[in-house]
């Protein structure tokens, strides 16, 4: 029975390691608001933010294969695990400053850190990142705008072997699919544990300083960047689920909150000041969990939702205290739980017709559905591109208000 449970959740984690939310799917530099001073975007945590760091790891937690990315530019799976691009309509709007001031968020980061324009010489970079890698600069358009600085349509993975020094100043992704706050979540899978991602960030800062050649410029980028974190999903559905007889929900989620605080404090000590912290999704409503714990009606599984809700409530109340403890820090809690639960409970309002099943269920239906936009969930563990696009505007407005 124990082996069966491990196999079931090993597969679940493989699925959970296969998507990247809209937050880092596109990192097209613009400001959080008209008065924002945001230099870069960094991401830490699990598959919700992983843009391909697992591609070259010896792990099952990777999704750089078809049908992932089938609706992405070029139909290519890149390690960003979903069916396609992430709010491209938002990204396109951000090319126009007037609209950016109305709807923008840290999806797009306008490189305006003090001293950076001087370092770059005000010139457009010779290349821009493309969905397929580095390519020639476009002849105009939003990929080569923003005060003469090179803009990245995609946030690169730190462990991408093609990452160049030109990619460093506007931010990178450190997140690793399948990872978590608990070492017992990450290590057995061969993925990058969250505290080790912080070590990667420390290494990154050293590299950035070498590229810029000036500590003041490095400090300006680090302090004016936005830091996204998403961790806890895997800890609950894997580590806590398999060992819940040895701990209570309250005790384990308290540990998770403490680990999250430690993560934020570690980044703060290295100069980070603006944080967007994602809560866990409604785990019991994921198609993979419904199949395991739900009855034939495929209702959301209550225990997993209760675990997620307990953690999220405890997490969401720590930030006022942290802002007192950490002078100059700003925090925004991103309520992924209720944002997605609203779609699950009222799908028709947003044009969805399928909630309990996913478009792609490899163990039962290896051929993905023809139209993922009808589905709230792309696979067993992740929302579809349309689901992300539906919840994005409200979340981004909240982030803009709190982090500007």
TrEMBL record:
It comes from the Eukaryota. Gene3D superfamilies: SGNH hydrolase. Residues 1-17 form the signal peptide. Residues 122-143 are annotated as: Disordered. One of its GO terms (biological process) is lipid metabolic process. InterPro entries: GDSL, GDSL_lipolytic_enzyme, Lipase_GDSL_AS, SGNH_hydro_sf, SGNH_plant_lipase-like. It comes from Brassica oleracea var. oleracea. Belongs to the 'GDSL' lipolytic enzyme family. One of its GO terms (cellular component) is extracellular region. This is Uncharacterized protein. The lineage of its organism: Eukaryota, Viridiplantae, Streptophyta, Embryophyta, Tracheophyta. Keywords: Signal. Pfam families: Lipase_GDSL. One of its GO terms (molecular function) is lipase activity.
